[in-house]
Amino acid sequence: MALDLVQLDLALDLTDIAVHGFGEAVRAAARTVNGEFLFDLPASGLLDDAQRIAVVCLSRQDGGRFGLVVLNSKGDRAMTVEPGAGTADLLRFARAFVGVLEKL
Predict the structure, then answer these.
(1) What average pLDDT does range 67-76 have in this prediction?
(2) What's 7's DSSP letter?
(3) What is the rounded CA–CA span in Å between residue 9 and residue 22?
(4) Quick check: 30 and 93 in contact, CB under 8 A?
(5) Residue 16's CB: how many other CB atoms inside 10 A?
(6) Which of 9, 46, 54, 78 makes an SS bond possible with 26, Cβ 3.0 to 4.6 Å?
(7) H-helix or E-strand containing 29?
(8) Chain centroid to CA 4: how far?
């Protein structure tokens, strides 16, 4: 796992998901590592044992570096994952989303 994802994962461990909710926990962790929370949405079968997926832009350099944060199906644990083949469309959407943000 890349260092920036490890840092994001450690920042997630500092935030109580049960108290703050998934979205706010990811936002706080992203701020801690100087990343940008982009959005979260239902996992819809993209990953096993996942209820929701959040996308964090870790860097806008060289086309962007993105990390995914997954809320497990029980809703009690969030973890970072590297984007992969199953999330390629989500990653393309995230790149387009950043492109729109940059134009605004």
Answers:
(1) 93
(2) H
(3) 13
(4) no
(5) 11
(6) 54
(7) helix 22-32
(8) 12
Give the pLDDT of residue 21: 92
Assess contact for 70 and 81: CB atoms under 8 A: yes
pTM of the full predicted structure? 0.89
Burial (0-12, 13-18, 19+ Cβ within 10 Å), 103: exposed
Query: Are 36 and 57 within 8 A, CB to CB?
Result: yes
- Cα angle vertex 100, ends 12, 34, to 5°? 30
Q: Locate tokens 């644990």: which residue?
A: 77
Q: Which amino acid is at 102?
A: E
How far is residue 92's CA from residue 74's CA, in Å, rounded to a whole number? Answer: 28
Condensed to tens digits (0 to 9), the pLDDT of residues 36-58 reads: 999 999 998 888 889 999 999 99
Alpha carbons within 13 angstroms on the beta-carbon side of residue 72 total 7
Rounded to 5 degrees, φ, ψ at 55 are: -115, 130
